[in-house]
Amino acid sequence: MEFLRPQTWAEALAAKAELPGAVPIQGGTDVMVEINFDVRRPPALLDLTRVAELARWSAEPDGRLRVGAGVPYARVISELADRLPGLAQAARTVGSPQIRNRGTVGGNLGAASPAGDSHPPLLACGAVIEVESAARGVRAVPAEEFYLGVKRNALEPDELIKAFVTPVAGGPQYFSKVGTRNAMVIAVCSFCVALHPAERRAGTGIGSAAPVPLRALAAEEFLAAELDWAGTAPLAPALLTRFGELVGAAAAPIDDVRGTAAYRRHALSVLARRTLTWAWNDHRKAAERCA
Amino acid sequence: MTVAIGEPVRRVEARDKVTGGARYTEDVRAADTAYAALVGSAISAGRVRSIDARQAERAPGVLTVITHTNRPDFAAQPPTPYTAEGRMPLADDRIHYAGQYIAVVVAETQEQADHAATLVQADYQRTSPVPTLDAALPAAYIPRQNGLVRFPSEYRRGHAETALAASPVRLEQEYRTATLSHAPMEPSSTLAYWEGDRLTIYDSSQAVHTHRALVATAFGLPEDRVRMISSFVGGGFGNKSFAWPHVFIAPMAARVVRRPVRVTISRKQVFTGTGHMAATVQAVRLGADREGRLRALIHDSTNQTSFIDDRQEGAAGTTPYMYAIPDVYARMRVAKVSTGTGGAMRTPGDSAGAFALESALDELAYKIGMDPVELRRRNHADTDPVSGRPWSGKRLLACYEQAAERFGWDRRKAEPGSMRDGDDLVGYGMAGGQRMEHQSRARATVHLSDEGTAVIRSSTVEIGGGGLTTLSQVAAEGLGLPVGAVTFEHGDTDLPASSPTFGSLTSGSAGSAVRLAAQDALRAAIELAVGDRRSPLHGADPDDVVAHESGLRLRDRPDRAESYRELLRRNRVNSLRGDGDFQPAGETAGYAMATFGAHFTEVRINRHLPRVRVVRHVAAFSIGRVLNARTARNQAQGGIIMRLGAALMESQRPDPVSGRFISPALTDYHVPVNADIGEVDVLFVGEPDTNANPLGARGLGEISAVGICASVANAVYHATGRRVRSLPITPDKLL
Fold first, then answer.
1. What is the CATH number of the domain that holds A254?
2. Percent of chain B with pLDDT over 90
């Protein structure tokens, strides 16, 4: 197995173009596990940890954040929690401190596991994934178009993930996850809701309950129609119940070693109700302060 | 008297362990070592038609590839169960389970061996596997090879069926426990080298003398030609109690390549190659009167075993000893599954068995409307119901009482589902536990030096339980020394043979040997002093001389005293040796011996997302004398937490087609993490139990892990009204 270690982004793209079978590696928290388990034996590993620009984040002229694919979860938590609270909450549930020091959102996107913790907040926030190839330059793929199947994403063989670009939170965001234990655990199912009061809508993201991470579109439409953005009343129980049902219905879970399909669907409804309640309560408090 | 026993002394090896100074088996280096990688079978049943090792043999650094076609012969099959499998590695072309070793690749480096192992091509002839215990159940039978022969496979007193039929209250239920993996941090490792016909073997073994005998038999050597060393074990829980195939592969490979060979199994092979606790299906039938007096009990357990061995998971083994029930029938059967042979796992038989029996008792308590503690009190076995002998130091009633009080059991509302806190359903549950106390011959010497220090020499292995510390305290107290003045040579067959570090033998058996050795050394020092004209103790009656502050003194005359240092130096004695040889009295003891426990658990279950959280667990144990309050508490908490894993999350599930384990990895086989564990409180009710042995201490490692699963399940029932009879209690079972 070749081990390639480009020093610059241009070198990385050239290497990927030359050897499309090379598997990019950041923290290695997914890639090395798969190699250890003999799930795959790629012809080459393309180590991106030397490419400095991947480890940076910055504000775009339009106010969105551009976060390099090599920014580890630990920095998402310590540097971006105020602007990307949903993603930071998800990052806190990833592995152990050691794993959070190494693992990256870019790696999560590359692995495209339906259980990846980054995906629900990226979907709920309306993030765009920036990918690039030496031949065709940069392409921006909306998160919901990025996940194509179990561990399959929209990357072409010569493309690398450069960054994700996401709006700064315009309202409360909550991520919640059920695991088989309380830490160091892959999700049985996960859910994120992000309120976008300026647009009078809410975004959602479902993890680990379908072949791909996905938005609960019917649930989002339901909220857009039903939420009283100007009001400061608590959410009606019927609204919460319906929202939970729609989120559960959006999933397409399976039975596996971590949980049953029936439990996943049920738990997603619970997570949906909870996170929306938390988010809406925050929104009400903010609205009251403004009033 | 210096009081050392019972003190919360910090582990004597703690500093070495946390600073990386402790040398584990994997850390041992030998010049010119070659490294082996073990190739596991991809299928779970069938035969190896052929193995093409040519590509592997040509790979860089490869010295040899050993298969069933070119292996050297073993001299003999050493006896099971301490030889874990009743089939020597690479014996023939048969495949009994997925992961069974079919080839050994030896290379200059581990990486080269691992790489070449991937190049070994096997052509299989598949037969149809028996994938699960359910598939095997119809063909269950009484084991022909009795597994661990602690308990017979069948036990009968009275006429249980008749008594059951005549009982006013009857209960019949089936309980299931999952296959569990030991999942220790340290993968097993063996380093073997030959010097002529002498074999040295460093092995992460829980029992060097026991395993040396097996290796000697396998290679046709007298035992004294084999030296086995186990410095520290990085967690065993029983998976290093038996000698698994890799232990025999390392010396075999070393003979082939004429170099030292290291075998460290992979993380995956920890799950497939060093045993597991076999899944059980247990039928329990209880008959009682309306006052809760048990009249009949039938406990019928079947566990999966491999096609190699009839290994009994003794789930009903302790049942006949537990309660004062006139009519009892217990049976343990095995059913052949295409899986590896089960091992001994904390706590063999009793963890699984107590889940069934103590759940059934809880069900009975609700059925007749009686407090579960009271039900157990009413059926307390004042004497051993099997032998009729009195118990040696049974304080189970005190365990119930003290743990219940500490827990606040009186706050429990009897009605299931009646205790709530917001969205949380709150449940209180309890269960008892019992483990028969075993003893083993154990030897030790204690050398008392003219520096006023002592050295214990004994082959006991430190597996993390704190044995080096507790035994040092035993020697320190016996000689009146500070614990810091005692050092330990351990884990080596060149030392006096201690008891194995499994079966909860260390405190009672190894501890008694050290006790006897310290007493013997003290006796020698006293003899020297009373016969020495220059000693202040000259001429004293030896019975009046006691150890005191690193020396001797007259019991009633503190001024007539001298230090060991003065005494030995004056007499030009470098050291005095004391020998200890503990021989169990066994059946002649006149007492029945067991350890006992009571568990009380509070669970909280969010009613929407019914995940069970154990927020509080209180346990009390009757184990005689507690040797070290700190290590004992730590060990008991560990046993409880281990079983909280079995109660709530652990399950090594078989693939329903092949029987192969689905999760042979820590990524998917989840054990509890800190965030899962609430308050775990441990009490010891014991007082020295010198009927059991000279030290008065019984084992703790195993009793600490008996009864927890039932206590949790009983609390879950109390919280929800849902009785879960199949472990683990995952949220989907409470939907």
1. 3.30.390.50
2. 95
Put simply, whether B732 touches A (Cβ < 8 Å) is yes
Query: What are the pLDDT digits (tens) for A32-82?
Result: 999 888 888 899 999 999 999 999 999 999 999 999 999 999 999 999 999
Indicate yes or no: CB of A183 within 8 angstroms of CB of B674.
yes
What pLDDT sits at residue A39? 85
| 8 Å CB contact of B118 and A263 | no
Quick one: A195 and A92 in the same domain? no
Could you tell me the CATH number of the domain that includes residue A56? 3.30.465.10
**Mean predicted lDDT score pLDDT of chain A:** 95
Cβ neighbours for B239, distance < 8 A, ≥ 6 positions apart: B182, B184, B188, B270, B274, B275, B343, B345
ipTM of the shown complex: 0.93
Mean pLDDT of B99-126: 97
Q: Are residues B602 and B488 in the same domain?
A: no
CA A53 to chain B, closest CA, distance in angstroms equals: 31
Pairing of strands B198-203, A128-133: unpaired
Contacts of B663 in chain A (CB under 8 A): 257
- Which of B653, B663, B732 lies nearest to residue A260, judging by beta carbons? B732
**Within-domain flag for A270:** yes
Say yes or no: B42 contacts chain A, CB-CB below 8 A: no
- Catalytic residue numbers of B, as ranges: 702
Residue B676 resides in a domain: yes
Inter-chain CB proximity B649 and A180 less than 8 Å? yes
Q: Which residues contact A13 (CB under 8 A, 6 or more apart)?
A: A132, A133, A134, A158, A160
Distances (CA, A) of B521 to B448, B547, B550: 7, 11, 13
pLDDT tens-place string over residues B299-354? 999 999 999 999 999 999 999 999 999 999 999 999 999 999 999 999 999 999 99
B173 in any annotated domain: no
Query: B557 Cβ partners below 8 Å, 6+ apart?
Result: none
Residue B214 lies in a domain: yes
Output the pLDDT for position B318.
Answer: 96
Total domains present in chain B: 3
Chain A interface disruption, residue of B115, B265, B644, B673, most A CBs within 10 A: B673
Query: For B115, which residue in chain A has the nearest alpha carbon?
Result: A1
Contact A183 B672 (CB under 8 A): no
Looking at the partner chain, which of B662, B676, B735 has a beta carbon nearest the beta carbon of A266?
A: B735
Could you count the other beta carbons within 10 Å of the beta carbon of residue A218?
15
Do A7 and A147 sit in the same domain of this protein? yes
pLDDT at residue B150, as a whole number? 62
Q: Is the peptide bond before B347 cis (omega within 30 degrees of 0)?
A: yes
Q: Are residues B85 and B232 in the same domain?
A: yes
Residues of A in contact with B670 (CB under 8 A): 180-181, 185
Q: What is the pLDDT, as a whole number, of residue A37? A: 83
Q: Residue A183's closest chain B neighbor by CA?
A: B675
Structural domain for A249, as ranges: 173-290
In B243-296, which ranges are continuous DSSP H helix? Answer: 245-257, 267-273
Instruction: List the 145-204 stretch of B: residues with Cβ below 8 A of A.
Output: none
Rounded distance, CA B632 to CA B690, Å?
19
* Full-model pTM: 0.96
Residue with tokens 């097996």: B214
On chain B, the residues whose CB falls within 8 A of the CB of A271 are: 609
Residue B215 lies in domain? 32-128+182-273
* Predicted local confidence at residue A287, as pLDDT: 83
Domain count, chain A: 2
pLDDT digit string, tens, across residues B457-483? 999 999 999 999 999 999 999 999 999
What is the domain-level CATH number for residue B493?
Answer: 3.30.365.10
Residue A38 φ/ψ region, left for φ over 0, alpha for ψ in the -120 to 50 degree band, beta for the rest: left
Number of Cβ pairs < 8 A linking chain A and chain B: 53
Closest CA to B172 of B319, B300, B304: B300
Determine, yes or no, domain membership for B542: yes
Q: Closest to A263 (Cβ–Cβ): which among B267, B668, B732?
A: B732
Q: Please check whether residue A118 lies inside any domain of the structure.
A: no
User: Which is nearest to A73 in space by CA: A50, A46, A96, A51?
Assistant: A96
Tell me if B730 and A180 make a contact (CB, 8 A cut-off): yes
